[in-house]
Design goal:
With 521 residues, the protein is of the alpha/beta class. It is built from nine helices and 29 strands. It binds alpha-L-arabinofuranose. Alpha-L-arabinofuranose (AHR) binds next to loops.
Length: 521
């Protein structure tokens, strides 16, 4: 696609053969990005960098958890290599046990002696038999190993208020009570003090096909009994939120749930080309890439509009917007169980992740938690395993590059993005966010969504003085490139020299479909 500007200012777009466009060419214009130092800008909550682990496919079993008799090095059955890799990401929270699975899960099935635990059928994901060998103790102890905060999703769809209230008492109460006695009998004296509690999942769908009004009432009832057992004010109750652009769901919940009962309101949005024809995770066309990115960049509109509704009922922004499921969703890898949602992860996913995290950072005043779906072997995973082997995906590397934004102060940015055009449709080609951490380090993360053109960015640092600038890039030859079990390090961040500082201006070249992180002090 080439753009011609005619003398009369009329912009004509000429579509030329896609094959002829494969070579890289540069944007003639430089994009000016202004970064402002604003005292009242919000802090980017580290919880935006959260993850999600469901009893789905090979996420828990044959993923995180191999059992303590496995030859793969493990701690109480949890793979050591996964723990080490996730600790490097500083994952701030981990959501469990679902997803759709959460509304079928009865936590008491997963405690006590292994040989006495009942089996259930995982009806949502492959119809496999779940033996409940990975339960509450296993998950919460694993969170301690990972040094991350657990986020438990309670069963509203097929559970009871009593069951969920008991779970909170079991995990959080230090005093004497039936549930804390049971916990102690099962080998754990001190409570884990779980802070984040989801009251159901996708209540509009797999969580019970409820209407927004009906769920708002259910939520109020559950929230009444899901109490902070030690009155420390430590519990955050999160309501099952809207699917993508269901703004009525957000409006109804915000209107009908009292503020003191609501810590967070969820939102789920997956970047799917077409639910009936999701396309291959690796062999995709430019058209499919463009569609995936269209869905990914829609997140900007979604959080803006959901946040505006929340502002109406909660002008002081007390309630968090929690995007607790996001990511790319493609057809499962050929030859794998269709219910296991196993897919590879390419540079397309890296661009998707970088651009989405920039959106969350820039909306840090309301988006205070998010969970990539999912952590290991499912959907847009950061880790894939095959027997004893483990690979870190391009999305892992984005999470690693971006961890510098966790709990750093947002630096608001302003710029007008050039366009990435395909088949007469356009998307913003550039995505940027910036922050300053407690040590005074400034980080600017930049994504070039354009699949063919490199983009030049000139950063006006305004009153910020930034020295000793270094950069890293995540890039590759083709969008379809990925790490495989035979070539696990094909894609990884490298030091980047494609920038220059002249007369106080920082100019950065971003290659097509690449992500650059600048650091300076
Ligand atoms: O992440 C996979 C599934 O997607 C989750 O179980 C569900 O909440 C969503 O529909």
């Amino acid at each position: 696609m080439v753009e011609f500007k005619f003398k009369n200012g009329f912009l004509k777009v000429l579509v030329i053969n896609f094959i002829a466009c494969l070579s890289v060419y540069s944007q003639d214009k430089t994009t000016l990005v202004t970064i402002n130092k604003t005292e009242d800008a919000p802090v980017i909550s580290k919880h935006i960098y959260g993850h999600f682990a469901e009893h789905l496919g090979r996420c828990i079993y044959d993923g995180f958890f191999v059992g303590d008799t496995s030859k793969i090095a493990n701690t109480n059955g949890v793979r050591n290599d996964i723990v080490e890799a996730l600790k490097k990401l500083q994952i701030p929270n981990l959501r469990w046990p679902g997803g759709c699975f959460a509304d079928t899960y009865h936590w008491k099935d997963g405690i006590g002696p292994l040989d006495q635990r009942p089996t259930i059928v995982n009806t949502w994901w492959g119809g496999v038999t779940e033996d409940n060998s990975f339960g509450t103790h296993d998950f919460l102890n694993m969170c301690e190993l990972l040094e991350t905060e657990p986020y438990l999703s309670g069963n509203v769809g097929s559970g009871t208020v009593q069951e969920l209230a008991d779970w909170v008492q079991y995990t959080n109460f230090g005093g004497k009570s039936p549930m804390s006695d049971l916990r102690k009998k099962n080998g754990r004296n001190e409570p884990w003090k779980v802070k984040y509690w989801g009251i159901g999942n996708e209540a509009w769908g797999c969580g019970g096909n409820m209407t927004a009004d009906y769920y708002a009432n259910e939520y109020r009832k559950y929230a009444t009994f899901i109490s902070d057992w030690e009155n420390t004010g430590g519990i955050v109750r999160i309501a099952s939120g809207a699917s993508s652009d269901d703004y009525n769901w957000t409006e109804t919940l915000m209107k009908n749930i009292p503020r003191n009962m609501l810590g967070g309101l969820a939102l789920h949005h997956y970047s799917v080309i077409d639910w009936k024809k999701k396309g291959d995770a690796v062999s995709f066309t430019e058209e499919q890439y463009f569609k995936t990115m269209t869905e990914a960049l829609k997140m900007e509109e979604l959080v803006t509009k959901h946040a505006a509704i929340m502002d109406k009922y909660d002008p002081n922004k007390k309630v968090d917007l929690v995007v607790d499921e996001w990511g790319g969703w493609y057809e499962v890898e050929k030859g794998t169980n269709p219910g296991f949602l196993y897919q590879q992860n390419t540079m397309r996913d890296a661009v998707l992740a970088g651009a989405t995290l920039n959106i969350f950072n820039n909306h840090a005043d309301r988006v205070r938690m998010a969970n990539l779906a999912q952590c290991v072997n499912v959907l847009q995973a950061v880790i894939l395993t095959k027997e004893a082997k483990m690979i870190l995906t391009p999305t892992y590397h984005i999470m690693e590059m971006y961890k510098v934004h966790q709990d750093a102060k947002l630096l608001p940015i302003a710029f007008e993005s050039p366009l990435y055009t395909f088949n007469n449709e356009s998307l913003p080609a550039i995505s940027v966010s910036a922050s300053k951490d407690n040590n005074g380090l400034v980080h600017v993360s930049m994504v070039n969504v354009d699949s063919k053109k490199e983009n030049k960015i000139e950063i006006d640092l305004n009153e910020l003085t930034v020295k000793n600038i270094t950069a890293k890039v995540l890039t590759s030859k083709t969008l379809q490139d990925h790490n495989s079990f035979d070539n696990p390090t094909k894609i990884q961040p490298t030091n980047y020299k494609g920038f220059e500082v002249k007369k106080g201006k920082l100019t950065v070249i971003i290659p097509p479909f690449s992500i650059v992180m600048i650091e300076g002090k």
